[in-house]
Amino acid sequence: MGKTSQNMKGENFLTVFQALSLMIAFATLMILVINTSNKK
Q1: How many structural domains is the chain composed of?
Q2: Where is pLDDT greater, at 21 or 4?
Q3: For 22-40, what is each residue's pLDDT tens digit?
Q4: From CA 10, how far away is CA 26, in angstroms rounded?
Q5: CA dist list (Å): 7 to 2, 4, 21, 28, 33
Q6: Pfam families under this entry (predicted)?
Q7: What is the C-alpha to C-alpha distance for residues 31 and 37, in angstroms, rounded to an integer?
Q8: Among 19, 32, 34, 39, which residue is least crowded by beta carbons within 10 Å?
Q9: Which of 33, 24, 22, 19 lies closest to 11, judged by CA?
Q10: What is the dihedral of CA 16, 20, 26, 29, to 10 degrees?
């Protein structure tokens, strides 16, 4: 029982980490696009 709960927590953490990294990457891309458009 304990091992399964630990595995579930680990999987949830991985999915949350992936979602956060995706959001950060998307925000960085948006900032880069805004900066390039402003320079032009």
Answers
A1: 1
A2: 21
A3: 999 999 999 999 999 988 6
A4: 24
A5: 9, 5, 21, 31, 39
A6: Hol_Tox
A7: 10
A8: 39
A9: 19
A10: -150
